[in-house]
Fold each of these.
Amino acid sequence: MTTRMIIDTDPGIDDAMAIHYAAADPAIEILGLTTVFGNVFVEQATRNALRLLEMAGIDAPVAEGAAKPLAMPLSPPSHRVHGDEGFGDIPAAEPRGKAVAQSAAEFLVQTCADNPGEVVICAIGPLTNLALALRLDPSIAQTVKKVVIMGGAVETAGNITPHAEANIYHDPHAAAEVFAAGWPVVLVGLDVTHEITCPASDFDLVRENAPRIGGFIKDISEFYLRFYESVGKFGGCSLHDPAAVIAAAHPQYFTTKNVQLTVVASGEAQGQTVASPAADSPAVEVCLGVEAAAVKALFINQFKLLD
Ligand code: RIB
Ligand code: CA
């Protein structure tokens, strides 16, 4: 069963790993990428998204999205985590192609309307584009098949602050609208992504499996691993975004619980995702368990299929 996927992304090192994984997995059809601010400026995200699809040989559209959050001022990009251009130390490279004229929100709405019940939106950046799509045409909540989000931290601490995971932190208002929309949402948060860590030796295997694409992934992982070491994490980097793509196409590796969530919109706990049984919002399927070794092996071995 093929998962027909739009990836909403702020590439970004782990985004790049996720997109290359999706391109390599025969169970996934990439219908397009939509870009958003976050790890980098949205213009950089669009350039990087075009480059990633060209590297992977995938002929799919890229639609540029939000340059800033719904209501808050734009936070500085996470360049210390992902590099000034989003791919660690690798210099910016101009893509051959260009983004389509549609905005990300228009592309999300149109693609789901043209393929009712078939499209999985995998959101691995701030949720601004998804909120804008809901505002543009609320019927996307009925036409989408499923929304799988890398974000949140429900029974564990945050990463950008002790309370919040970065994607939710960067636009908590958008996250609240996304969680309240009534479409089927699976949340792949730090509760599970912090269980899936890759040291440098894992990226050596990825490079051995696919010298060209795997070599790129190895190169960008080095900057990412240095950041993790700079904050005292020496066991490897978390496969945040690849875990969300894998959960979208291979949910059997994850255990979930239906939880009603509220999002803290401001203050010290901005972006915190709080289990709120009394809330009148729809439940979200929160991933609380993962077969981490199996997910990591799937990630590493998928690249054997490439040249
Ligand atoms: O918290 C991790 C998330 O924030 C990932 O999507 C990473 O790319 C950053 O966007
Ligand atoms: Ca991301």
Amino acid sequence: MRILITGGAGFIGSHLCERLLEEGNEVICLDNFFTGRRANISHLLDNKTFEIVRHDVTEPILLEVDQIYNLACPASPVHYQYNPVKTVKTSVMGTINMLGLAKRVKARILQASTSEVYGDPLVHPQTEDYWGNVNPIGLRSCYDEGKRVAETLMMDYNRQNDVDTRIVRIFNTYGERMLENDGRVVSNFVVQALKGEEVTIYGDGTQTRSFCYVSDLVEGLIKLMNTEADDIHMPVNLGNPTEFTMNELAQEVSKAVGKDINIKYLPLPQDDPKQRQPNIERAKKLLNWEPKVPLAEGLKKTVEHFRPFCEAQ
Ligand code: NAD
Ligand code: UDP
């Protein structure tokens, strides 16, 4: 199969490129290199069935492909708030362009949505039928509302134009190839602990997240793309349901790094969700999928990835 991965030079995208190449597919990695890096995919360049296209998804493109994974969009609050208008354009115009492409060439398309569509959730754990509690005008809205519109577009292109769509709501995912200055909690804590710096916890650290290791997530993405079912076009949560407070996460990172840590408490950012945990019953039933890698094990691998960068400095 010829598969297009937008955002393919990013954290999750690069792991997906790798897996799909291993399975014998032709892979086109499309990226504007905003948060993606050539280094994430440079080990794949010798592969004859791998191609890189420098392109921005806000502009249309015509390619002949069988499947599209639309992952292009900065995912860290630090990066998506850097140019919020561009973030909205990436989700809205980018998704329209990719859906237009899917429609023209009759490709199946999977949209990377997010647990952020649930906002600061009042239903816990979050099930796919919960409509969410999102602030439409806050600092996180460019990302949250952009992804909500992307979901709307997917459903409407499916209903109106019969495009073969998949929507995945990804919960916090971590692992090798996150950027050192990514700003998300796992990479921040790991880098700070390795450098012997104070670990920055925002707020009182009682807010919760549930962390999925990247190989588990990639497995789920591929299964969702290749599964057929009557309600397959409806959103599917993918994530690891084991929930941690940020205080607990700091201690887990300390164990994985093998060092004691000092904690610095900083103000909580605006609209920071208080709790998050996926209900993954739908993914279990539909895809026969569940995450296998516990946090302690995934953190160890992540720490070994960051160690050379941090200890060289
Ligand atoms: P990332 O920032 O590492 O990757 C995003 C990639 O998209 C980067 O390579 C970036 O350069 C590229 N990109 C951004 N804007 C673009 C544009 N306009 N045109 C072309 N390329 C563009 O983030 P990630 O963690 O790998 O996330 C991948 C996808 O998964 C995103 O859509 C994100 O919203 C979604 N997601 C991720 C998480 C997570 O925890 N990692 C959680 C929920 C959803
Ligand atoms: N966070 C933190 N310290 C950091 C970075 C993030 O305590 O250095 C907190 C953040 O306030 C949030 C949680 O960790 O409550 C997860 O943040 P992240 O940016 O990774 O993802 P998101 O908020 O989008 O789930």
